[in-house]
Specification:
Elements: H1 10-25, H2 47-57, H3 65-76, E1 84-90, E2 96-102
Antiparallel strand pairs: 1-2
Length: 106
Amino acid sequence: MVSGRLPCSFATHTILGSYTVQSELGDYDPEETEYNSELRFAPNHTKELEDKVMDLHKNYKGMTPAEAEMHFLENAKKLSMYGVDLHHAKVHTHTPTYTTHHTHTH
Protein backbone atom coordinates (compact mmCIF):
# COMPACT_ATOMS: atom_id res chain seq x y z
CA MET A 1 0.00 0.00 0.00
CA VAL A 2 2.55 2.55 1.12
CA SER A 3 4.90 1.69 -1.73
CA GLY A 4 2.13 2.12 -4.29
CA ARG A 5 2.31 -1.52 -5.43
CA LEU A 6 -1.26 -2.05 -4.20
CA PRO A 7 -3.22 0.88 -5.62
CA CYS A 8 -6.33 1.95 -3.77
CA SER A 9 -8.57 4.95 -3.21
CA PHE A 10 -8.25 7.62 -0.55
CA ALA A 11 -11.16 6.03 1.33
CA THR A 12 -9.50 2.61 1.29
CA HIS A 13 -6.17 4.06 2.44
CA THR A 14 -8.10 5.68 5.29
CA ILE A 15 -9.79 2.45 6.37
CA LEU A 16 -6.65 0.34 6.10
CA GLY A 17 -4.60 3.02 7.84
CA SER A 18 -7.06 3.17 10.74
CA TYR A 19 -6.77 -0.57 11.31
CA THR A 20 -2.98 -0.32 11.09
CA VAL A 21 -2.95 2.36 13.79
CA GLN A 22 -5.27 0.34 16.04
CA SER A 23 -3.02 -2.69 15.66
CA GLU A 24 0.21 -0.74 16.25
CA LEU A 25 -0.86 1.83 18.87
CA GLY A 26 -3.97 0.36 20.49
CA ASP A 27 -7.01 2.39 21.51
CA TYR A 28 -7.16 6.07 20.60
CA ASP A 29 -6.30 8.36 23.51
CA PRO A 30 -6.41 12.09 22.71
CA GLU A 31 -3.73 12.78 25.30
CA GLU A 32 -1.33 10.04 24.26
CA THR A 33 -2.07 8.92 20.70
CA GLU A 34 0.33 10.64 18.34
CA TYR A 35 0.76 9.57 14.75
CA ASN A 36 4.45 9.87 14.07
CA SER A 37 6.21 9.98 10.73
CA GLU A 38 6.98 6.24 10.95
CA LEU A 39 3.31 5.37 10.41
CA ARG A 40 2.73 5.93 6.71
CA PHE A 41 -0.66 5.03 5.22
CA ALA A 42 -0.21 5.87 1.54
CA PRO A 43 2.42 6.86 -1.01
CA ASN A 44 1.01 10.41 -0.88
CA HIS A 45 0.50 10.66 2.87
CA THR A 46 -1.26 13.92 3.73
CA LYS A 47 -2.57 15.66 6.83
CA GLU A 48 -6.11 15.15 5.49
CA LEU A 49 -5.52 11.39 5.27
CA GLU A 50 -4.08 11.35 8.77
CA ASP A 51 -7.11 13.26 10.13
CA LYS A 52 -9.53 10.79 8.51
CA VAL A 53 -7.54 7.84 9.87
CA MET A 54 -7.74 9.38 13.35
CA ASP A 55 -11.52 9.88 13.02
CA LEU A 56 -11.98 6.18 12.26
CA HIS A 57 -9.42 5.07 14.86
CA LYS A 58 -11.46 6.77 17.59
CA ASN A 59 -14.27 4.24 16.94
CA TYR A 60 -12.19 1.13 17.59
CA LYS A 61 -11.96 1.26 21.38
CA GLY A 62 -11.45 -2.24 22.75
CA MET A 63 -10.46 -3.78 19.40
CA THR A 64 -7.46 -6.08 19.83
CA PRO A 65 -4.46 -5.97 17.48
CA ALA A 66 -5.51 -9.36 16.08
CA GLU A 67 -9.03 -8.08 15.34
CA ALA A 68 -7.63 -4.94 13.70
CA GLU A 69 -5.32 -7.04 11.52
CA MET A 70 -8.22 -9.30 10.52
CA HIS A 71 -10.32 -6.27 9.51
CA PHE A 72 -7.33 -4.91 7.58
CA LEU A 73 -6.97 -8.17 5.64
CA GLU A 74 -10.72 -8.46 5.01
CA ASN A 75 -10.65 -5.01 3.38
CA ALA A 76 -7.31 -5.41 1.58
CA LYS A 77 -8.30 -8.67 -0.11
CA LYS A 78 -11.20 -6.87 -1.82
CA LEU A 79 -8.76 -4.72 -3.81
CA SER A 80 -8.46 -5.69 -7.45
CA MET A 81 -4.65 -5.90 -7.34
CA TYR A 82 -4.45 -7.77 -4.02
CA GLY A 83 -2.28 -10.84 -4.46
CA VAL A 84 -1.05 -9.77 -7.90
CA ASP A 85 2.67 -9.23 -8.36
CA LEU A 86 3.64 -7.49 -11.60
CA HIS A 87 6.86 -8.49 -13.35
CA HIS A 88 8.66 -6.75 -16.20
CA ALA A 89 8.73 -8.81 -19.38
CA LYS A 90 9.55 -8.34 -23.06
CA VAL A 91 7.59 -9.80 -25.90
CA HIS A 92 9.15 -10.67 -29.26
CA THR A 93 8.84 -7.05 -30.40
CA HIS A 94 11.08 -6.02 -27.45
CA THR A 95 8.34 -3.79 -26.13
CA PRO A 96 8.24 -3.66 -22.32
CA THR A 97 5.09 -5.19 -20.93
CA TYR A 98 3.93 -6.69 -17.66
CA THR A 99 2.93 -10.17 -16.66
CA THR A 100 1.18 -11.10 -13.47
CA HIS A 101 1.80 -13.67 -10.84
CA HIS A 102 -1.14 -14.34 -8.55
CA THR A 103 0.04 -14.91 -5.00
CA HIS A 104 -3.27 -16.08 -3.58
CA THR A 105 -6.35 -18.05 -4.48
CA HIS A 106 -9.97 -17.17 -3.94
